[in-house]
Write a sequence for this structure.
């Protein structure tokens, strides 16, 4: 994990990488934002757009440490969540381009490979444009869309997250049951796994 952080802070590819807020300063809470999790057992990754230039003081200085992430923490529990962003730098007026998104995806991919989340909740249109089609990825509106621009949709947004949790928990229990049966020699799931890989097409780097 430390190597991922060092690689991210040393990166100068993005156009605003040298802005003061994006240059690492632990005391001020500045620097490029990588991923944040309370536990190494976390298995649900939430991918936002990019960090705001208005930084919270450490130790809350991470992606979605404020009200945007509260809904996810309430429903899934903080210990299960990995918060990160597609773009790792703050930008003027919080605006990004598709080029910024493609630059950030390389760092995001490193994080996905490291954490191997069971499910990825990708927020906003740039995630939909850049991330690949994969059974692990679910695309949602950014919570700010409901909280700021369409507050009448907040109830439906919450219901959607609660449904995802139920489906995910049920799927995980079934997967764990199959794993235990396979380890006990009761069943052989290798053929089913092969069919699933064929059905979803090319294997993603984090699926190895």
């Amino acid at each position: 994990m430390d190597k991922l952080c060092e690689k991210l802070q040393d990166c100068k590819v993005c156009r605003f990488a040298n802005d003061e807020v994006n240059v690492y300063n632990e005391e001020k809470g500045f620097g490029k934002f990588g991923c944040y999790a309370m536990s190494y057992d976390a298995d649900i990754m939430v991918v936002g757009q990019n960090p705001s230039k208005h930084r919270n003081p450490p130790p809350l200085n991470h992606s979605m440490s404020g009200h945007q992430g509260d809904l996810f923490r309430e429903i899934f529990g903080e210990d299960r969540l990995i918060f990160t962003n597609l773009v790792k730098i703050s930008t003027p007026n919080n605006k990004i381009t598709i080029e910024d998104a493609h630059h950030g995806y390389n760092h995001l991919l490193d994080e996905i490979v490291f954490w191997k989340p069971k499910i990825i909740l990708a927020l906003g249109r740039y995630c939909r444009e850049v991330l690949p089609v994969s059974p692990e990825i679910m695309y949602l509106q950014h919570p700010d869309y409901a909280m700021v621009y369409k507050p009448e949709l907040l109830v439906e947004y919450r219901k959607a997250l609660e449904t995802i949790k139920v489906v995910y928990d049920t799927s995980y229990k079934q997967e764990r049951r199959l794993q235990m049966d396979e380890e006990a020699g009761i069943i052989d799931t290798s053929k089913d796994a092969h069919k699933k890989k064929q059905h979803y097409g090319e294997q993603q780097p984090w699926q190895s």
Remarks:
- The helical segments are 2-10, 67-76, 98-115, 125-130, 143-149, 154-183, 190-200.
- The first strand starts at residue 36 and ends at 37.
- The chain has one domain: 2-207.
- The chain is about 45% helix and 10% strand.
